[in-house]
């Protein structure tokens, strides 16, 4: 497992750089704007990732919140039990998972609602005849028709929000790597940390693919802004208050 330890050390070194951690969120706005311009100018050639049937989209992005929770939950349980044996401390981190899940659910449902209330059902893309018997996207598509509404990019939202959420909650790893853990917990924690960083890489890559291949510019920008706001209002505003789940621990272990 020496190779994993080296990878963890390099990742920790990267995320310890203040400029990297403090400016990571800007990368999503930059990619969204630049990607939208490239798409509108048709400067990016078709690739494997220009199809929404690509494996990363089907098996990862479409269930991205599930992957985030699957890897982050055991990481939080193990890392916080190492930092503190306090049930209250662990409970606050699990509460942050619940808050993030509520934000994810509320935003995605809001996006579906907006698309429903702003859309109409057509026989085909670009058709002029509206099929008025269908008033929702689900019913329209089940009947084999096409729904056209204001489609806020759920991909842009969840990939940006999930990446920022993971980076915030894995912050304790910057000191846990020197905590002198026993072999098995250390190995599990290291593997989870590497997996979470790999997931962030996948999310950023697929965010870029969404930006250059799919959606209208305003759909992507609004989805991105929603993701950034979800992160900012929690980790930069609410979690700084005493009546909140609080931020993940960022100091050295207590004796």
Could you outline the blueprint of secondary structure elements for this entry?
Blueprint: H1 2-16, H2 18-23, H3 26-40, H4 55-59, H5 64-83, H6 87-118, E1 120-122, H7 137-142, E2 146-148, H8 154-169, H9 173-176, H10 183-213, H11 217-237
Antiparallel strand pairs: 1-2
Helix pairs in contact: 1-10, 3-10, 3-11, 5-6, 5-8, 5-10, 6-8, 8-10, 8-11
Keywords, please?
two-stranded antiparallel sheet; 255 residues; 11 helices; 2 strands; mainly alpha; elongated
In short:
Keywords: Endoplasmic reticulum, Hydrolase, Lipid metabolism, Membrane, Transmembrane, Transmembrane helix. The protein is built from 11 helices and 2 strands, in the order ααααααβαβαααα.
Walk me through the structure.
It is elongated and about 70 Å long. Helices cover 67% and strands 2% of the residues. The longest helix has 32 residues, at 87-118. It has 11 helices and 2 strands; from the N terminus they run H-H-H-H-H-H-E-H-E-H-H-H-H. Strands 1-2 form a two-stranded antiparallel ribbon. The chain has one domain (2-117, 151-240). Helix 5 (64-83) packs antiparallel against helix 10 and helix 6 (87-118) packs antiparallel against helix 8. The two termini are 27 Å apart. The model has no long low-confidence stretch (mean pLDDT 90). It is mainly alpha-helical and 255 residues long. It has helices at 2-16, 18-23, 26-40, 55-59, 64-83, 87-118, 137-142, 154-169, 173-176, 183-213, 217-237, and strands at 120-122, 146-148. It is a multi-pass membrane protein. The chain crosses the membrane at residues 24-44, 64-83, 95-114, 191-214, 221-239. This is Fat storage inducing transmembrane protein 2. It is found in: Endoplasmic reticulum membrane. GO terms for molecular function: coenzyme A diphosphatase activity.
């Amino acid at each position: 497992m020496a190779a994993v330890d080296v990878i963890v050390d390099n990742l920790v070194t990267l995320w310890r750089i203040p400029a990297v951690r403090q400016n990571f969120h800007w990368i999503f706005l930059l990619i969204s704007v630049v990607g939208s311009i490239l798409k509108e100018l048709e400067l990016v050639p078709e690739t494997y990732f220009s199809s929404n049937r690509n494996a990363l989209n089907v098996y990862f992005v479409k269930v991205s919140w599930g992957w985030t929770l699957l890897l982050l939950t055991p990481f939080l349980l193990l890392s916080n039990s190492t930092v503190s044996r306090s049930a209250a401390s662990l409970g606050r981190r699990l509460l942050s998972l619940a808050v993030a899940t509520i934000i994810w659910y509320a935003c995605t449902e809001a996006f579906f609602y907006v698309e429903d209330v702003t859309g109409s059902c057509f026989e085909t893309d670009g058709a002029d005849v509206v099929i008025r018997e269908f008033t929702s996207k689900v019913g329209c598509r089940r009947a084999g028709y096409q729904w056209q509404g204001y489609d806020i990019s759920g991909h842009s939202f969840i990939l940006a929000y999930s990446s920022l959420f993971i980076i915030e909650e894995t912050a304790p790893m910057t000191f846990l790597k020197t905590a002198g853990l026993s072999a098995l917990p250390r190995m599990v924690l290291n593997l989870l940390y590497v997996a979470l960083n790999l997931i962030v890489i996948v999310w950023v890559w697929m965010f870029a693919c969404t930006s250059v291949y799919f959606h209208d510019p305003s759909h992507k920008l609004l989805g991105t802004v929603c993701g950034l706001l979800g992160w900012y209002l929690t980790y930069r505003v609410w979690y700084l208050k005493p009546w909140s789940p609080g931020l993940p621990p960022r100091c050295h272990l207590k004796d």
